[in-house]
Amino acid sequence: MTLEGKAVLVTGAARRVGRAIALALAERGARLAIHYNRSRKEAAELARDIHRSFGVDAMTVKAELSDIRAVERMAKTVASGLGGLHALVNSASVYESNVFGKTTPDDWNRHLDANLRAPFFLCQAAAPHMRRSGGGVIVNIADWAGLRPYAGYIPYCVSKAGLLCLNTALAKALAPEIRVNAVMPGPVLLPPGTTKRQAQAVREATLVKRLGSPEDVARAVVYFFENDFVTGAALPVDGGRLIA
To answer: Exposed, middle or buried: residue 196 (CB in 10 Å: 0-12, 13-18, 19+)?
Structure first.
């Protein structure tokens, strides 16, 4: 897919990795819908930056991802606001530590709702708009921990493992009109409170002996847009951490 002029919805686009993805797509001429929940100010600033820097349309859209009706309305709002919908990047995510033995149903539901349930229902709502636009692309931001889980983040890791399964299932269900792929970031942005010693240990655990960046993930997303012969794939962007 050539990104020039295409309408793309990026969830969780106001901050962090989602922001880098939105900027990379806008730089290539995509028209952006910037989803946010609480980061209204950051989303508005990003929309202004995109329009000023790249001269393309950028709208903001608020939705609580645990509310499936809100998720479904978002797809309609974006398609109406941008005159169609060609692509979706499921970037929004909940990432919290949960100790086994003290994990609550709310902890579990919070991760599964945002990281797995919302992407499914958003894809389901967006797919008809993509078909009417002549086809489309979906990119899911998963995590290498969906294959190599952390004991202290079980709900998160299970949600990302489910997203990888969903990625494959959707690639089959939506072919041939819509391609579906996933990016599996590794150590890109460390959690708040990470000590220098912990950060160094994370760097040493990669094959390339460094941390990644949100821009590394964004470049992988762009690859999945531009290569029309790839679907059902899951690309690690982890400095070799998965195989180390």
So the answer is: exposed
Element (H, E) at 32: strand 31-36
In this structure, the number of other CB atoms found within 10 A of the CB of residue 186 comes to 23
Identify whether 150 is a catalytic site residue.
no
201, 167 contact by CB (below 8 A): no
22: its two tokens: 């939105």
The single residue of 36, 153, 156, 223 carrying the catalytic annotation is: 156
Q: Check residue 210 and report its DSSP letter.
A: S
pLDDT value for 192: 81
Q: How many residues would you count in the chain?
A: 244
For 141-183, what is each residue's pLDDT tens digit?
A: 999 999 999 999 999 999 999 999 999 999 999 999 999 999 9
Paired strand residues for 137: 87, 179
Name every residue whose Cβ is closer than 8 Å to that of residue 166 and which is 6 or more positions away in sequence. 116, 119, 120, 140
CA distance 148 to 142: 12
Domains defined for the chain, CATH in brackets = 7-191+214-237 (3.40.50.720)
Whether residue 181 contacts residue 237, with contact meaning beta carbons closer than 8 Å, is answered with no
| pLDDT on residue 35 | 98
| 206 closest CA partner among 239, 235, 243, 184 | 239
Low-confidence ranges of the chain (pLDDT < 70): none
CA distance 20 to 78: 20
* Enclosing H/E stretch for 164: helix 154-174
